[in-house]
Amino acid sequence: MDHGAYAGFTQRALAEMASKDGLTTRVEDVAEATWRAVTDRSTQIRMPAGADAVAAATTA
Questions:
Q1: Are 60 and 50 a contacting pair, CB within 8 Å?
Q2: Residue-wise pLDDT tens digits, 5-57
Q3: Per-residue H/E/C for the chain
């Protein structure tokens, strides 16, 4: 997947995804986050869905 200007970014992104120690987002995670977004009256704008998204949100 070498496409000139995006090659470095693609390689870094794929390497990062491969090194996540099994943290992934499941369909159930997305459904739960969607339900929370619809029913939760808090002012939270972003709702991470899945272990990988939660990990990324807490380190960002």
A1: no
A2: 888 888 888 887 777 677 788 899 999 999 988 998 887 788 888 888 888 88
A3: CCCHHHHHHHHHHHHHHHCCCCCCCCHHHHHHHHHHHHHCCCCCCCCCCCHHHHHHHHHC
